[in-house]
Amino acid sequence: MLELRPNCECCDRDLPADSRLALICSFECTFCRDCAEARLGGRCPNCGGELVARPIRPPAKLASFPAGTTRRHRAQPCPAAQES
Ligand SMILES: [Zn+2]
Ligand SMILES: [Zn+2]
Question: Is this prediction's pTM over 0.90?
Fold first, then answer.
């Protein structure tokens, strides 16, 4: 079961369980779409795996299987956003 982490590991923005902006890798490293696209090139900077859209857990299930609340941050800063 996914932990549904509550924030982006790069910019620390909130990524609630119903957010369409949340992307995860196979280890569930969690990033927002902005960071994934502008800073990470669609790859997890922790493990090198691909980042894909995190599925939305149905609200009725969240009551029994709530989203995680432990905020995570990378030890190393993420790459700066590419100038466009
Ligand atoms: Zn972010
Ligand atoms: Zn990862």
Answer: yes
